[in-house]
Amino acid sequence: AKRLLESYAMGAKPMALAREDGERLKTIHEWIVAFDKIQVDPRSDPERLRQLEAAKQRLNALKEPIQRTIDGIEREIAEETALEQKHVYLMAKLGELEQNVKDRSIGTVEVRDELENVQLQLNLLRSLCRQPRSYVECEVDNTTSRPMSPF
């Protein structure tokens, strides 16, 4: 779990990898919660009790960073999904505008106004894609790819 958390120090990952990491971290978090609930007979070997408590403390120290990472991954996946949907919408809008120009179904002023509107929205989308992220890289413009990592 620790190496998985540390792998994000290198930067955000493609959404598919981040989604897998989020699922792994959820499983680990559930395992830590279950491990923490283990009850041991207090009459057990004191050394064994001490080792169990030490292990519980080490694992509990990971619970908050794991949950924070899970929350961040989920938030950034939602952001990326919304950006991708906006990108698809804008590309469709451009295609529609192109067809209208070919068909001459709208006037020059309308074309210019629509084009300016789409350009403004594309600029905003580009700006949003370039904002730094910790977990999920923006795949709409592919500007933040990093080398593939096993984690």
TrEMBL record:
Protein name: Uncharacterized protein
